[in-house]
Amino acid sequence: MDRGKADAELLADFIVTNKPCREIPIIGAPVPDVLLRLQICYTCGELAIEQRSGRVASSIMMMSHEGFRHVVLTTGRLVILSKTLRDVHPFGFSTLCKLARAGAELVDGVIAVMSKAITLGTCDGQPTQPGRSRPIWSLG
């Protein structure tokens, strides 16, 4: 049974050495391959967050015409990550170890934010007061 590409083949696109990085133009919109790598990277983060927390995470990415990108990860009504990415043109990692470390730091940081929100007594990201069933702020 053919299982598709090996792990090393799948991750090879995320490894960008210094020499190719210098050859990438930093003016204008990033090439579609870079944007796809960025989307895949945060999608994998979402899946790891869901696996560890049991809560579905989703990402929203916005990009300016200059290549700046803003990433927002949410779960329910809780924003668990809001990050501005500058200079995404050479997006990648120099080694597989650095890729793994960056992924682990992303997931660990988000899990810490989620744990803190639970400790503070939030309800899907909305603070509640003791004895109240409704969030402090509400549309209705």
Give a summary of the structure in a few sentences.
By secondary structure, this protein is of the alpha+beta class. The protein contains 4 helices and 5 strands; from the N terminus they run αααβββαββ.
Provide the fold topology:
Blueprint: H1 7-12, H2 18-23, H3 32-53, E1 58-63, E2 69-75, E3 78-85, H4 96-119, E4 122-123, E5 126-127
Helix pairs in contact: 3-4
How would you characterize this protein structure?
The chain has 140 residues and is of the alpha+beta class. The protein has a single domain (7-106, 116-127), classed as Protein of unknown function DUF269 (Putative cytoplasmic protein). Helix content is 41%, strand content 18%. It has 4 helices and 5 strands, in the order αααβββαββ. The chain has a 3-stranded antiparallel β-sheet with strand order 1-2-3. A hairpin with a 5-residue loop joins β1 (58-63) and β2. α3 (32-53) packs across α4. The protein is globular and about 50 Å long. Residues 131-140 have low confidence and may be disordered.
**How many helical stretches?**
4
What sort of overall outline do the alpha carbons produce when their principal axes are compared? globular
Quaternary structure: single chain
Strand percentage:
15-25%
Q: Remind me, CATH topology?
A: Putative cytoplasmic protein
CATH class: Mainly Alpha
Write out the CATH superfamily name: Protein of unknown function DUF269
